[in-house]
Amino acid sequence: MSFDDIVAQDIKENPILIYMKGFPESPMCGFSALAVKVLKLYDVPISARDILGDLNLKECVKAHTNWPTFPQIFIKGEFVGGSDIILDMHQASELIVRRFYYQVYLSTILILNLKGQLKDLLGDIAQKHEQKESS
Ligand SMILES: N[C@@H](CCC(=O)N[C@@H](CS)C(=O)NCC(=O)O)C(=O)O
Ligand code: FES
């Protein structure tokens, strides 16, 4: 099996694959460690290959993606990028989630406020209605 075949098979068979320095449990570089840390936040199975021990594999991966550095992350067969890109993607998704909760919070305040106003308004009518009935 050529190294090209190994890379092609790796990418095909593993939904999340990192070519990295070291292994997920023992990264040998801060950039690789960061990529693993971000992916671990999503509770997904992470497959990895250590490129430090195999220069041929390393060169083959670089040629395959035309990307000069490691880590290199593949998700569902697609090359995504390195640690900067995966961190940016994570932070962007965090921002969307935070904005969503903020919107829900604002909407809840608004609904409670309207409900309070309606209660005051109707309460007044109900009181007058009661007074009329008793007189
Ligand atoms: N900004 C890069 C950082 C990765 C990086 O600069 N990696 C370097 C140092 S570990 C690298 O792989 N250099 C090429 C090499 O060691 O062969 C990213 O987003 O992944
Ligand atoms: S091995 Fe030195 S920065 Fe990655």
UniProtKB/TrEMBL annotation:
Gene Ontology molecular function terms on file: 2 iron, 2 sulfur cluster binding; disulfide oxidoreductase activity; metal ion binding
Record carries keyword Nucleus: no
Top-rank taxon: Eukaryota
Coiled coil: none
Gene3D superfamilies to which the protein is assigned, alphabetical: Glutaredoxin
Metal-binding listed as a keyword: yes
Signal peptide (UniProt feature, chain positions): none
A Gene Ontology cellular-component term: mitochondrial matrix
Record-annotated Glutaredoxin domain positions: 16-80
Positions annotated to bind [2Fe-2S] cluster: 29
Keywords assigned: 2Fe-2S, Iron, Iron-sulfur, Metal-binding
Role of this protein: May only reduce GSH-thiol disulfides, but not protein disulfides.
PANTHER family noted in UniProt: GLUTAREDOXIN FAMILY MEMBER, MONOTHIOL GLUTAREDOXIN-S1, MITOCHONDRIAL
Protein family: Belongs to the glutaredoxin family. CGFS subfamily.
Entry protein name: Glutaredoxin
